[in-house]
Structures are given as C-alpha cells and as structure tokens.
Amino acid sequence: MTADNQQERLDPRYVCGFVDGEGCFHVSINKVPKMSVGWQVLPEFRVVQHERDESVLKELQKFFGAGKIVTNHGTRKELRIRKLNELRDVVSFFKKYKLQTQKKKNLEIFANILELMEHKKHLTIEGLTEIATLCWSMNRKIKPHFLESSETICQKSF
User: Fold this and answer.
1) Which of 18, 59, 71, 144 has its CA at 20 to 30 Å from residue 48's CA atom?
2) For residues 69 and 61, what is the distance between their CA atoms, to the nearest angstrom?
3) d(CA 36, CA 53)
4) pLDDT tens track for 100-134
5) HEC profile for the chain?
6) Alpha-carbon distance 73 to 56, whole Å?
C-alpha cells in the first residue's frame, strides 16, 4: 500500500467507510475440470461504482497498490483484487481499520478462507467442503454449487 504523494493519499478511515458501504469480500467456487480436484476457489475483494465515479476506483486502486478496474455490468465499473498476496494486504488493512457493518464478519470469514488456501486446503475435497461451508455463511448466504455436487453429496453431513 504505497502512495506517490502522501498528501494526495486517501484517508484510511474514508477508505474503510467507503468499503463498508460499497465493497464486498467474495469467494467463488467454480467447476474447472482441469484443476486437480475439479474445482477452483477464487477469492476477491470488489468495489463497484457507476462509470461516472470510476475516479474513486482509481484512487482506491492506487491506495491499495493492487487490483484491476474492469466493467462489472452495463455502466458499472469494479475494482477487483484477486492475487492472494494483495488480498492479504487488504485483510491486514481492514484488521487495523475496523469495518462497522456486516462486512466485518464477512472479512473474518474471508481471512479464514485465505488462510486455508495458504495451507493448500483448497486442493482437497475435505478442504473445499470446509471453504464452501464458510462461503455459505458470507454475504447473501447462497449455497455454493460445490456443496450440491456429487463430489460432496456422499461425504457431507450438514
């Protein structure tokens, strides 16, 4: 997290409040047959804005020193951070500057999932099941498709 000019750097409390309202910690589990266990875990931190406010996303990108700005849908743009080392930095920032909304709990779950991935748990069916169960408790509590797949049906007891 570096800034070219300290006076132009966003205030960390502003960033925290902005993300509380506009950000998201998200983890997808996608079926990818070429992966060793047939599934890919994709954690990401996202902030979405209308394209007219893309400059805010650019400032956040500069603040975190990470991520890409991409089209989210229609006229919405998104700052998306996916690299694990960059996500660790984002988590560290929000552990120092506390979120105030439900995102605080989502951050804790997200950090736990990153830790499981660092220990390569996502490369086993058992670890994927643990990660998917954690994902289920985040955000809108949508049950991951992985938990409904034939790979997990015979081994889970929810």
Assistant:
1) 144
2) 8
3) 40
4) 999 999 999 999 999 999 999 999 999 999 999 89
5) CCCCCHHHCCCHHHHHHHHHHHEEEEEEEEECCCCCCCEEEEEEEEEEEEHHHHHHHHHHHHHHCCCEEEEEECCEEEEEECCHHHHHHHHHHHHHCCCCCCHHHHHHHHHHHHHHHHCCHHHCHHHHHHHHHHHHCCCCCCCCHHHHCHHHHCCCCC
6) 17
Query: Tokens representing 33?
Result: 């047959």
What are the distances in angstroms from CA 153 to CA 30, 132, 145?
17, 13, 11
Orientation of helix 84-96 relative to helix 54-64, angle to 10°: 90
Token pair of 130, please?
């643990």
Tokens coding 133 = 């169960």
Q: What domains can you pick out in the chain, each with its CATH number?
A: 6-152 (3.10.28.10)
